[in-house]
Amino acid sequence: MTADVSVVIPVYNGARYLADAIESVLGQRPRPREVLVVDDGSTDASARVAERFAGVRCLRERHRGLGAAHNRGVALASGELVAFLDQDDVWQPRKLERQLTAYARDDRLEVVFGHVRQFVSPELDARSAGRLVCPPRAEPGYLIGAALFRREALAHVGPFREDLVTGNFIDWMARARDRGLREAMLPDVVLRRRLHTANYGRVRRDARRDYARVLKAALDRRRGTVAHSG
Q1: What is each CA distance from 155 to 84, 171, 199, in whole angstroms?
Q2: 3-state percent helix, strand, coil for the chain, nearest multiple of 5
Q3: Residue from 83, 194, 188, 174 nearest 134 by CA
Q4: Can the peptide bond before residue 140 be classed as cis, meaning omega within 30 degrees of 0?
Q5: Distance (Å, rounded) from C-alpha 168 to C-alpha 81?
Q6: What are the sequence ranges of the domains in the chain?
Q7: Are 116 and 190 in contact (CB under 8 A)?
Q8: If pLDDT is split at 50, 70 and 90, which confidence band does 203 have?
Q9: What pLDDT, in 10s, does the model give residues 125-183?
Q10: 8 with 36: CB under 8 angstroms?
Q11: Which residues are bridge partners to 60 per DSSP?
């Protein structure tokens, strides 16, 4: 059985963990109709890892950043529903099944989230692992990898910002909520988020600046709405 779901996996120099991510997608029942790996100009073996998997389409692009990779995947997606997965995370085995069930119960939903459990990547030594803060319990996962979207909702809200290094999805969700996107949070764990020494938010010094830009954009939109209504 195949679900009408397109899965987009953006990758940039993520060969180390990419196979685990892809395997967690291909192991879903029902299987997604297509898996699109968008290689954002990697200089490592990321594309070769993706191309080893039957049924996975690998798109080699020039390096333009995470937002552009997400948008490229959405533009090529053919499924009614679209899901994303970061190159270093993994889905729980029944992720798609549970979210598809939620859509079947309420066809008004436009995005369905689930809970996330974080884990320290097992190859880290004790000293490196000790520097990471890993929550002991699962938490509500307002992360792009924990969601399943209607493609129409992605089009309605608009593309991911390509001028941000980090915070692209936070910005998208802020715009979605401003538009009243109908969402649900499942109690089930659907995503395992890997903690390691090269997580994007840890290695990018411009992360805080981008988050500040996202917050400012949200505040500006709300001020504009208030001014317009007044």
Answers
A1: 15, 15, 29
A2: 40, 25, 35
A3: 194
A4: no
A5: 20
A6: 2-229
A7: yes
A8: very low
A9: 788 777 788 888 999 999 999 999 999 999 999 999 999 988 999 999 999 999 999 99
A10: yes
A11: 39
DSSP letter string over 124-136?
S-HHHHHTS---S
Pairwise pLDDT comparison (149 vs 196), residue with the higher score: 149
Structure-token pair, residue 221: 């939109």
Amino acid at 6: S
Cβ distance 18 to 11 under 8 Å? yes
The CATH number of domain 2-229 is 1.10.10.10: no
Q: Is the dihedral of CA 147, 152, 156, 161 positive or negative?
A: positive
Written as six digits, the tokens of 128 are 């490196």
pLDDT tens digits for range 12-45: 999 999 999 999 999 999 999 999 999 999 999 9
